[in-house]
Specification:
Elements (H helix, E strand, L loop, with lengths): L7 H13 L4 E4 L3 H17 L9 E8 L2 E13 L4 H20 L2 E13 L6
Parallel strand pairs: 3-4
Antiparallel strand pairs: 1-3, 2-3
Helix pairs in contact: 1-3
C-alpha cells in the first residue's frame, strides 16, 4: 500500500489559483506575514533554480486526524469596489474549499478570507 503526502505549498498553490478565479477578486496578495515568507521562499528558489507555482497570499495548516488529514487555509485578497465584500468572501471560501478537496482529496476544515484592500475602478459607472 502506498501513502502519499500533499505538502502545504501544493495546497497553497491550489488555493491561490482558485481564489484568483473568483469574480470580484482583483488579485491574491500576501499580507505582512506573507510578505516575509514570500521573500524567504523567493531567495530559496533563486538558489535552487526552481520556478514554483505562486503561493503568495495563502497560508496553510495541515492537521492530522484519525482518518487522515484536514487542512485550514487563509487567503488574502484584493477585491473590486464594484462588488459586495461579504459575497466575494463567501465565494472565495467555497471556491478554495472545493478546489483543494478536488485537487488533493484533503478535507477542508476552514477557509479564512482576509480582504486586505478594495480597488475602486473610477472609470465605471
Amino acid at each position: 500500500m502506498f501513502e502519499h503526502t500533499v505538502g502545504a505549498p501544493v495546497v497553497a498553490a491550489v488555493a491561490v489559483r482558485a481564489a484568483a478565479a473568483v469574480p470580484g477578486v482583483v488579485r491574491v496578495e500576501p499580507g505582512l506575514v506573507g510578505l516575509v515568507a514570500s521573500m524567504v521562499r523567493a531567495a530559496r528558489h533563486r538558489v535552487t533554480g526552481l520556478d514554483p507555482a505562486p503561493i503568495e497570499g495563502a497560508r496553510v495548516e495541515l492537521d492530522r486526524v484519525a482518518d487522515g488529514h484536514t487542512v485550514r487555509v487563509e487567503v488574502d485578497v484584493v477585491i473590486s469596489g464594484q462588488d459586495q465584500a461579504a459575497a466575494v468572501g463567501r465565494a472565495v471560501q467555497r471556491a478554495v474549499a472545493g478546489a483543494v478537496t478536488e485537487a488533493t482529496g484533503l478535507t477542508v476544515a476552514e477557509v479564512g478570507v482576509s480582504i486586505i484592500d478594495v480597488v475602486w475602478d473610477l472609470d465605471r459607472p
